[in-house]
Design brief:
2 copies of one chain form a homodimer. With 336 residues, chain A is α/β, with parallel strands linked by helices. Chain A has 2 domains: 143 residues, 3-Layer(aba) Sandwich (Rossmann fold); 132 residues, 3-Layer(aba) Sandwich (Rossmann fold). Chain A contains 11 helices and 12 strands. The first copy, chain A, has a 6-stranded parallel beta sheet, sandwiched between helices. In chain A, strand 3, helix 4 and strand 4 form a beta-alpha-beta unit. The N and C termini of chain A lie far apart (65 Å). The interface between A and B is large, with 61 and 61 residues. Chains A, B: This is Ribose transport system substrate-binding protein. Chains A, B: Belongs to the bacterial solute-binding protein 2 family. Chains A, B: One of its GO terms (cellular component) is cell envelope.
Chain lengths: 336, 336
């Protein structure tokens, strides 16, 4: 009889547990009614780029992983370890062969990967570009910095740091389109919004630290009253910082640099570089995965079918934005 | 004894049901492990615009609703029924007072709503702009058509439809920035990519059907060998269509128009207008809600905290893209 009672007790507790579970599933934060936007663990999205080991990509991969975590899908990180067009193309071909749910690619050059990208898209594997576009490929969209806007932001920041009257210069990489756009955005914004801030010199720093240092020294000697230099890439920013230190012009010549490698951040921390512009690399990774997920699920229940609902192809372009890094917030930007 | 057996049976079945439920929760599409990206039903996102009743907004609202459905949150649609700046500003103030989770605004003009938008953002209510921006407000981002790119797409389409040699014209609304950008994108793309396709005339159709018809007639008489007209807005497209019919030039002068109101779609269906460009209004609504959701949840578990993880502010701009509408796919674009 005691045994029977015990058995009863066990079964009754089980029954209550069942009732509780059933009730819980109906009424907690909506697991039953609302499963939210999510995929399957087996759904694998791959990020492919070049120079895979550099710090610059860490936040992009983090964004890609954060989105995958939120959506319950898997990611993989591949690419060429070297700055090697053929290696990146080969890695991309290998990735395509395994038919992943989607691929986010940063192109080492704007044409070399077109054939591979087009093959993937034609085989029904969604491909989006991030950071460096392949505009003539069939990739579904591009997520990256609007360089003209970034240059315009640098101009407004310069006016804030150096005042709205005076002389400023640019050190850039004039043969690359992204640097031309940063220069144009800076120049046109000064002309349009700060006519008192005169752009007296645009120098070619060749993307090299020592050459940029030389150009900055020349610029400061030709224009002793120079109050700021916008450097459109990171090596040149450090070079210009060294030039300002050598000339003893710290506090007179404000440097605005680009990107957030360690050398640049150290100079922001010490005050040699007044500010640098951080690209939205986390956004590039996060929203790339978000777009790929939507493309992959286009015909499933979670997202509307373009045939039926008027859903559109993916947004063609996402400006992932820039953030201003100064001494006040620099610690957040060191790669982890 | 029979009763006892029955009771046992019931309890055993219950126990098995419990085991099954527990197992199911662990192993089905991951409801337990993965709840996906989702909010709460009480989380309300509001779309605010002007001329709320027009067809143009239907797809934007559909996108907004589709995203809310996917994320398990609620939406509301508000705005001014008239083309009335004060009415839209008043409605926006009312919406802000009820502290929604986020607001997507299409601004009737680029300045009038700034105070209200800034107030909302300062109070911690995320605001994004869609379709019509308020660039000097504190809104977190803008989602809309890149009009320069749309004009460039129209130029490439013209070369496809009218061939790469010949004369073409534009009928536009030269005082509005979005129309200037469409014109510039068309013009520069022809010069850069199709030097054999000459832009012989840019006329002011004043956004009016009859005026545009008049301008199209004049253009065809001045240039009897004209092979195409790009009209940058919908009323003018119908006007140009009527002009082509009157002149008996159907098949010789290809018209490319803009947007997808009924008059335009009917002319695409009949072949009078060769193609029209549909804006990505569904994308505007869908990705606006997606961004607002992320801004609202910034400090919750689902999305990374910008302080900790390197997560970025929202993307600054999303080009929601355009789609080419021809006789082949026109039926999909009628408002439902």
């Amino acid at each position: 009889m005691k045994k029977l009672l015990l058995l009863y007790l066990v079964l009754i507790v089980t029954f209550m547990a069942y009732l509780y579970t059933a009730y819980f599933r109906e009424s907690d934060d909506g697991l039953n009614a609302v499963t939210g936007l999510h995929g399957e663990r087996e759904e694998k999205y791959v990020m492919v780029n070049f120079l895979t080991g550099i710090d610059y990509w860490k936040n992009a991969l983090k964004g890609f992983e954060d989105a995958a975590e939120a959506l319950g899908v898997s990611v993989e990180y591949r690419g060429s370890t070297q700055y090697d067009v053929h290696e990146e193309a080969m890695v991309l071909e290998q990735v395509i062969a395994r038919k992943p749910a989607g691929i986010a690619v940063s192109a080492i050059n704007s044409e070399a990967l077109n054939a591979a990208i087009d093959k993937a898209v034609e085989a029904g594997i969604p491909v989006v570009m991030f950071d460096s576009d392949a505009p003539n490929s069939k990739a579904l969209s591009f997520l990256g910095t609007d360089n003209y806007s970034a240059g315009a932001a640098a101009a407004r920041l310069m006016a804030e740091l150096a005042g709205t009257e005076g002389k400023v210069g640019i050190i850039t990489h004039p043969n690359q389109l992204n640097h031309q756009e940063r220069t144009k955005g800076f120049d046109e914004t000064l002309r349009g919004e700060y006519p008192g801030l005169e752009l007296v010199s645009i120098a070619d720093g060749k993307g090299d630290q020592l050459e940029s240092e030389k150009q900055a020294l020349t610029m400061m000697r030709l224009h002793p009253d120079l109050s700021g230099i916008f450097v459109t890439e990171a090596n040149g920013g450090v070079g210009a910082g060294n030039a300002v230190l050598k000339e003893g012009k710290l506090g007179q010549v404000r440097i605005i640099s680009f990107d957030t490698n360690k050398g640049t951040l150290d100079m922001v921390k010490s005050g040699t570089i007044a500010a640098t512009l951080a690209q939205g690399t986390w956004n590039m990774g996060y929203w790339s995965l978000m777009q790929l997920f939507h493309a992959h699920h286009e015909r499933s229940a979670g997202t509307p079918d373009s045939q039926d609902s008027g859903a559109f192809p993916l947004p063609a372009y996402v400006d992932t934005g820039i953030s201003v890094v100064t001494r006040a917030n620099v610690d957040r930007f060191y790669a982890k």
